[in-house]
Amino acid sequence: KVIGGHTDSPNLKVKPHSRRSSSGCTQLAVECYGGGLWHTWFDRDLGISGRVFVRNVDGRVEQKLVRINRPILRIPNLAIHLTSASEREAFAINKEDHLTPILATEAKKALTGKDDDSEGWKSRQEPLLLEMIANELDVEVESICDFELNLFDVQTASLGGAYSEFIHSARLDNLASQTELNDDEDISLVALFDHEEVGSSSLSGAGSPVMGDAVKRISAALCDGEKDEDLYAACIQKSFVLSVDQAHAIHPNYASKHEKGHAPKMNAGMVIKRNSNQRYATNAVTGFLVKEIAEKAGLPPVQEFVVRNDCGCGSTIGPIISSSTGIRAIDMGCPQLSMHSIRETMGVADLTNGLTLFKAYFKYFRDVDSSLEQ
Fold first, then answer.
1. pLDDT tens-digit profile of 279-291?
2. What is the CA radius of gyration of the chain?
3. Nearest to 244, CA basis, from 356, 334, 304
């Protein structure tokens, strides 16, 4: 039994050559990752996080995690007085020119002497950025030899609504769908992948061999390391992937964007996602099994999501894993609003519904599956 999900979200990543300036401002060169609602990144308080490669005195290179959790960057909007009516109406963004965040002013940097004459890799990096990273990690600037950094909104999650029934937070898609394993007599695992937002074709994405390899190694372990094709085939046939990714709740201001009979609501139950063109892995059997499990757990009836015929459909890791391994799968998730915004919204009850379903899946799946005649 597998629960699969992804951990990445659309964001702005610092480019390999971070140094950039314009009109007296020190900026950072950034690259768009995934399909973000980029206009929501304007006028937000942004910090930086990621990993840094630090060379120790003995010459060995150590990887360190860094998080500068304060508003050191900002992407300001253009004042209304400087935009035409047509520009305001369109709010068209050039992702290369308009999403470059401001770090400091050139004048302030000159007064504090924050500049350098470095060569090589460091000559292409913003000295202020390197200094802040060094201070955060308590290392020397000279010891930093590379990094992989992301921007993030420093505002923390909050409860909202008259009855505090909503959660407002960054990266609900898809951190709200993560879970952990408890004691289980069956063979169960949680698989969390990267790069779903850009297609999953990577070393750490769902398109890698890791899921198939895991099943092969587990089946081999059950045979004391001996290869048994029959056992492996049996493992594949009896396995199941609960592919969990956030779902689109109906938006009260844009209700026409949903198919009328398949419009999930927040705080009203988990959502099964279906698409006849195989953008989702759900089929009649996998959908039925999960609905049975939800009923056994006493959860609200599972909601259904299908896109309109005149609307494109997203996808996720379910079809990728199922097609590459032959394991049955279903795509489902918690309903939310503002997907891929810098700040998203979901229902408080849906977090509980999700956790309850995950536990029920590990507890009841084998019984429910065996009760269905093949």
1. 999 999 999 999 9
2. 24
3. 334
